[in-house]
Amino acid sequence: MAKENLADRLFDLASGIGEQEGLALVDVEYVRAGSKSTVRVFIDKPGGVTLDDCQAFSDRFGYVLDRDDPIPHAYSLEVSSPGLTRSLTKPHHYRYFAGRRVKVVCRSPRDGANTFSGVLKGLEDQVVVLEVAGEEVRISLDEVARARLLGDWA
Question: I need a surface site. Which of 27, 30, 39, 139 has the fewest CB within 10 A?
Answer without folding.
Answer: 139
